[in-house]
Amino acid sequence: MMNKPPTGQPQPVRSLDARYYTDPAIFGNEVAGVLSRTWQLGCHASQVANPGDYAAFEIAGQNLFALRGRDGKVRAFYNVCQHRAHELVAGTGNCKVVVCPYHAWSYELTGELRAGPNIKSVPGFERGDICLSEVRAEVFCGFVFVNLDDDARPMEDWFPGVAAELRAFVPDIDRLKPLEWVEIPENCNWKVSVENYSECYHCALNHPTFATGVIKPETYDIQPQGGYCLRHTTQCQNLEAMSYAIDLTANAHAGDYSSWFLWPMVSFQVYPGNVLNTYHWRPVDVDHVVVWRGWYTVDGVESDVIRRLAVQDRETTVEEDIGLVESVQRGLKSRGYRPGPLVVDPNCGVNSEHSIQALQQWMREAVDG
Q1: Which of 5, 94, 352, 364 has the highest count of CB atoms within 10 angstroms of its CB?
Q2: Using an 8 Å Cβ cutoff, are 281 and 265 in contact?
Q3: Are residues 44 and 191 in the same domain?
């Protein structure tokens, strides 16, 4: 029998029940709820750089696409024709007007119906009444975010100050283009993967390359910031121990590591040397998620340093994390698991799970209301 704390002493905060990660009904509620009412990463703005450029993607089970208008504005739409529901576009491309492959109904770049074969013969047909269904969209530090909630507050309200901080750490962020994107399938619930990312309690033991060749784990800390952001900060390793070369004179933050996790499933990560890389999670079902790992350079120019860093990351930290999160998902289905107490140190620091406490509170609010 477990010993209970004496009456009057504070009780440790315990982790979420396993059902939050294993119950298909809860996942269904998340798709209809939190995933449909939060800001999600759709694509990079460079994929829709010119008028008529489009990029298709899926958010919360909905097929969407971003489209650059002739006015320079990026809009997002549900990827469905208003005639008989055929999908309009796939992948990326450019068009003068959006034409449905099924019956050739065409739409302006602003979403209004332009024309359709023989529609003028239909009594009472009002072309002006038909328009593609638009979705809230914002360009945030060079990335296109969407929110299926028409009444969603702007991203600056959700994540105050983050855009300005990112620009300070990555001065050329608006000129960046993807150099490499890697899709990483993980056999776990998306929240298991997000939690693993959101603490460094496990880093020294499980990520030797990251902990000895990129950062000083003893300086690592994660703090909630401005509503729905978790801010990671740490110092970089000594220059002679770094696994890649950096120029500390290039920028005030050249020697810093920082990360901004934006609830529920996007993270901007800046490695020492002002190197931007990103994570974004795309849930498949209750037991599977795909993690997109992105690396960027100014104007997308080739960089041996970034390529080598991406390979190093993929072969060490990424592979190591896959084993961890998949083991946790299996463990959550064990009849022997009882949610343990989180290690919440009042002094915070790398060996504290105060960030998980905040994250799990957001998870409870999303599921339980």
Answers
A1: 352
A2: yes
A3: no
Q: How far is CA 16 from the centre of its chain?
A: 22
* CA-closest candidate to residue 300, choices 180, 167, 182, 178: 178
CA–CA dist 79, 85 (Å, integer): 9
User: Residue 238's domain spans which residues?
Assistant: 160-368
- Write out pLDDT tens, residues 163-189: 999 999 999 999 999 999 999 999 999
Task: Report which of 308, 303, 317 is spatially closest to residue 176, judged by C-alpha positions.
Answer: 303
Residue with tokens 């996790």, as numbered in its chain: 261
Tell me the helices (H) and strands (E) count for the chain, helix number first.
10, 17
331, containing H or E segment = helix 319-332
Q: Are 240 and 137 in contact (CB under 8 A)?
A: no
Residue 120's Cα: distance from chain center in Å? 45
**Judgement on whether residues 300 and 363 belong to the same structural domain of the protein:** yes
pLDDT tens-digit profile of 41-94?
999 999 999 999 999 999 999 999 999 999 999 999 999 999 999 999 999 999
Identify which of 67, 62, 89, 91 has the alpha carbon closest to the alpha carbon of residue 78.
62
357 plus 295 within the same structural domain? yes
